[in-house]
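Let's practice the habit of predicting before peeking. Look at the sequence and jot down your guess about where helices and strands might fall. Then scroll down.
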Amino acid sequence: SVGDLILHVFSQAIPCNVTGVWRNELGSVLDIEAVGSELRGCYQSAVETAPGVTGPEHQAKLLGVTSNRGLQTSVAFSVLWEAGSCSSWVGQCFQLPDGMRVLKTLWMMRSVASCPADNWKSTRMGEDTFVFIS
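Done guessing? Here is the structure:
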């Protein structure tokens, strides 16, 4: 039955450790440490919407939260960029049967608007898949 199939899939859930270094499909690097339910670390961006907006080192401090209460590990984290924009990710860490870990996220970036009329173009959204590298 469908119910038995769902129970089988959920029984295969493996806790996923988010501490470590991760790389996404654009080459950005996420270096995070989970301490209890808190995430701290650094985000090194491989891309920026305009020269210099991510700062001279293209990196920012990361703060967030994580939970292992469900069948998989959920995460939410944010960074504040040098030029005042901010980005946030929310997603889930998956420990695959082959031992590989992936972090599937959706992100939202808010750029600084110079006036209320420019508000419409100040928010971008997308998705990232981070792969554990060390």
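How did you do? The CA atoms of residues 1 and 57 lie 54 Å apart.
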